[in-house]
Amino acid sequence: MSRRSRTVAVSIVTFILASGVVARADDATPAPKDAEKAALEKRVGDLERQLAELNRKFESTGTNQAGDELAARVSELEKLTKKDENGLFAYWKNGLRMDSANGAFKLRIGGRIQNDWSWFFDNQDVEEATGKEVEAGTEFRRLRLAVGGTIYKNTEFMAEYDFANGSVNIREVWIGLHPGGTGFLQVGSMKEPFGLEWLTSDLFTAFMERSSGNDAFVPGYSTGAMYSDTLAEDRIAWAAGVFRDANDAGDDTGNTNSGEYNYTGRFTGRPWIGETANDWLHLGVGASRREPSNDGAQYRSRPEMHLAPVLVDTGVFDAGGAMLYEGEAAFSMGSFWAAGEYFLTEVRAQDADDPTFTAWNLSAGFFLTGESRPYNAKKGVFDRVTPKENYDGEGGAGAWEVAARYSAIDLNDAGIDGGEMKIWTIGTNWYLNPNTKVQIAWVHSHTDDIGRLDGIEMRFQVDF
Q1: What are phi and psi of 341, to 5 degrees?
Q2: Would you place residue 46 in the very low, low, confident or very high pLDDT band (cuts 50, 70, 90)?
Q3: Which residues lie across from 117 on neighbouring strands?
């Protein structure tokens, strides 16, 4: 082999080896797009042509060792191309994701950890009125694992389980389809579409606990079927469904009125969107017609601290049904945001006048480090906060937010004395990165005929 031929062979071998390294690196990245796949196939074709030309040159010199090596490398590249078509490629997007190249199969594996700490002050009134000790403590508020994804392009699924408090409870466990290519139909256990704060993931809320009105009136997780969609280029979002009362296993069996159905719907929109994605106004309404499975109703709430006792409670009373109404508004401009909700519950009592209960809350926040609270237009809720720079211990500070909320709830009406409570919450949130958050808040509550209860609560949170 001449020096020139050897030089050409070495150059091409070096190029092939580099190509193989790139191809292997691609295995650890998301599936290539069609353009990237086409480029890879073109690269294989170019190498095959170079190999044929080189073989002709090597045949004239009586040796083909380098050509055999090149043939092996081309064969490896062809295998990688086929692997792109059929394999799953792992990557990170606020959690572990694995996708196929053609997008027909997608897998999400994740979970969350929320470790809460609480300290209470001025708790003598509550202890004397309730006969319960109010003590500092810690708990894993949520400890969840989840797996979800898409199979054969059009079937979605989710299975999320909560292991907090030493038990296993199902949360989001459903199967979903996009019938006709529009909208989304879900069947299984899910959140009923009712309320801005409730439908915003607890990972993304500005406060550790949702407001007292959410605690008392929001239907929660139920088993049923729901259809949702958007209109006007995602400026409007709506959802409606039919549900059965279900326990923490997602089952509705053995109740007095087992088989009764509840109907819930929500309609939201953004009548104003500014020049940037950070400026918008959100308005929404929700309603739910309830048929209690056991001919009974009960509404109660803690003072927005999960380790505190329930301080307002109607107790269980006979009820043939209820109508829940909810109105909501939210606003964002730059680093400032504000939100509010109003709840009205009308109960069809069987042996008494029909009582009406109410609750409302107002909240606002500001990012000291310049971020904004994102909006999920598909669902009409707040979304994940992403710091401009992550905390890294070397100058990166993460995102810092201050927030305040005032809420009130009234469970007194028509001879039912459930109590009235008013609550102030002032807190600070530190987002170390998109998946890690530390929260600390001071909570002051006052309950009629009971008195005040103050507390400081803190949460350490990570999700993946």
Answers
A1: -140, 150
A2: confident
A3: 138, 458
Phi, psi of 10 (to 5 degrees): -60, -40
- Count of C-beta atoms within a 10 Å radius of residue 355: 23
Residue 121 near residue 308 (C-beta atoms within 8 A): no
The DSSP output letter for 309 is P
Q: Cβ(279)–Cβ(320) under 8 Å?
A: no
Per-residue pLDDT of 96-118, as tens digits, reads 999 998 889 999 999 999 999 99
Q: First and final CA of the chain: distance in angstroms?
A: 57
Query: Which residue from 154, 158, 138 is spatially nearest to 146, judged by alpha carbons?
Result: 158
The DSSP-derived string for 94-140 is: SSEEEEETTSS-EEEEEEEEEEEEEEEES-HHHHHHH------EEEE
Residues 33-49 as b/e (b if ≥16 CB within 10 A, e otherwise) read: eeeebeebeebbeebee
Give the span between the Cα atoms of 214 and 340, in whole angstroms: 12
Contact, 397 vs 438, CB < 8 A? no
pTM of the model: 0.80
Nearest-angstrom CA–CA distance, 327 and 344: 9
- Find the helix or strand (DSSP H, E) in which 48 lies: helix 34-61
Q: Are 243 and 190 in contact (CB under 8 A)?
A: no
Instruction: Locate all alpha helices (DSSP H) within 180-309, ordered by sequence.
Output: 196-199, 212-217
Task: Convert the pLDDT of each residue in 182-203 to its tens digit.
Answer: 899 999 999 999 999 999 999 9
Backbone phi and psi for residue 127, each to the nearest 5 degrees, phi listed first: -65, -40
Instruction: Please name every residue paired with 392 in a beta bridge, in sequence order, or none if there are none.
Output: none
- Which pLDDT value is given to residue 180? 81
Distance of alpha carbon 372 from alpha carbon 366, whole angstroms: 8
Structure token pair of residue 43: 């690269």
Which amino acid, residue 196?
L
Backbone angles phi, psi at 99, to 5 degrees: -125, 150
204-219 residue pLDDT tens: 999 999 999 999 999 9
Task: Say how many C-beta atoms besides its own lie within 10 A of residue 409's C-beta.
Answer: 30
pLDDT at 414 over 80: yes
193-206 per-residue burial string, b: 16 or more CB within 10 A, e: under 16: bbbbbbbbbbbbbb
Q: How far apart are CA 90 and CA 321, in angstroms?
A: 49
Q: Is 49 helix (H, G, I), strand (E, B) or coil?
A: helix
